[in-house]
Design brief:
The structure holds two protein chains of two kinds. Chain A is about 85% helix and about 0% strand. By secondary structure, chain A is mainly alpha-helical. Chain A has one domain. Chain A is globular and about 65 Å long. The N and C termini of chain A lie far apart (about 55 Å). Chain B is built from three helices and no strands. Chain B is mainly alpha-helical. The chains are: A mainly alpha, B mainly alpha. The interface between A and B is large, with 46 and 37 residues.
Chain lengths: ~250, ~70
């Protein structure tokens, strides 16, 4: 049964995950738009969004045909592996062991790369720029599609998951269009930290459900698991920070 | 072709950004599934073991990452 304990974290997880990915894709699309004009940027973005929409249209209904326990186990394992990867990276970035993702630097690199390319004609330049925008939206969007399909894999959850992702797209794009600058003020690593903990929690929950070992408290256990991995992540980030300070001293 | 290669690399990176972490997480799930099947674990113990195993995998993954 779908209840608030399930839908609220799903909407939030898809919203936050999508916001992170859209910020990254927007930086590249903005660079294309500024260097080569809005047309190739819009064409590349539209083409990638079409490919992603087709992927959702194909794989979404396909998931509904898979037996629920098998689906929960497979999706649970994938979410667990994917979420743990995000959480580990976010912990290392928070602790200072890895550099934070810098949208302003990414924008500068992309702009420079586009300017340094010397196309044989204007048409060739537009084509190359369109491909760059297409690739950025497709690659970042692939992760969003996976997250939305995976966390929306239970009956009745695909719509809330999609709504969370769509809301993030609209909000981030509106902010980007308004600013016409890379969205470097969005705390990308904190969002990734949160999403990593949420996806890991969902993954552990659904793995157990898929194995036929239900959690005490039902869907409410998801909130407990997310809190557990969030707290563990914060403690580990503190440990990493302390270790780096000790080495530096 | 370049786009397809990048897409393949992105999908691979999604699940095996850190091979050790991926394998440990999979091992924890397999151990729980095996324990349940062999009746070494009860349905009440498996969730706790899985959640704890994942926590250990994360801890080791972070400690390894911080040591690089």
């Amino acid at each position: 049964m779908v209840n608030l304990a399930t839908t609220a974290p799903i909407v939030l997880a898809s919203f936050l995950a999508c916001a992170v990915e859209v910020v990254e894709a927007f930086t590249i699309v903005l660079a294309v738009s500024i260097v080569r004009g809005a047309r190739p940027a819009a064409m590349g973005t539209a083409a990638a969004l079409t490919v992603l929409a087709v992927a959702v249209a194909i794989f979404g209904p396909l998931l509904a045909t898979v037996p629920i326990h098998g689906l929960q186990l497979v999706v649970g394992v994938l979410l667990l592996v994917f979420g743990l990867g995000w959480l580990r990276k976010a912990v290392l970035r928070t602790g200072g062991a890895l550099a934070l993702h810098d949208e302003t630097a990414a924008f500068a690199d992309q702009t420079e790369a586009l300017r340094s390319e010397a196309p044989t004609s204007r048409q060739a330049g537009d084509w190359l720029a369109g491909i760059v925008a297409f690739k950025a939206v497709l690659l970042e969007g692939t992760e969003v599609v996976f997250i939305v399909l995976a966390i929306g894999a239970r009956p009745g959850l695909l719509v809330p998951a999609s709504m969370g992702a769509a809301a993030a797209c609209v909000l981030v794009l509106a902010a980007g269009v308004e600013l016409r600058a890379p969205l470097s003020k969005i705390p990308e690593n904190s969002l990734k930290f949160m999403v990593g903990a949420m996806l890991t929690g969902f993954g552990v929950f659904w793995c157990c459900e898929g194995l036929g070992a239900p959690w005490p408290g039902g869907d409410w256990a998801i909130l407990g698991l997310v809190a557990l991995y969030l707290a563990a992540g914060l403690a580990l980030a503190g440990f990493v920070r302390g270790r780096i300070a000790k080495v530096a001293a | 072709m370049n786009v397809l290669k990048a897409l393949g690399a992105t999908i691979l990176k999604m699940f095996v950004a850190d091979l050790w972490l991926t394998l440990t997480a999979l091992l924890v799930v397999v151990l729980c599934a095996g324990g349940l099947r062999a009746r070494l674990l009860t349905a009440g113990e498996a969730p706790l073991l899985l959640a704890g195993g994942v926590l250990i995998a994360l801890t080791v993954g972070v400690v390894r990452g911080a040591g690089r």
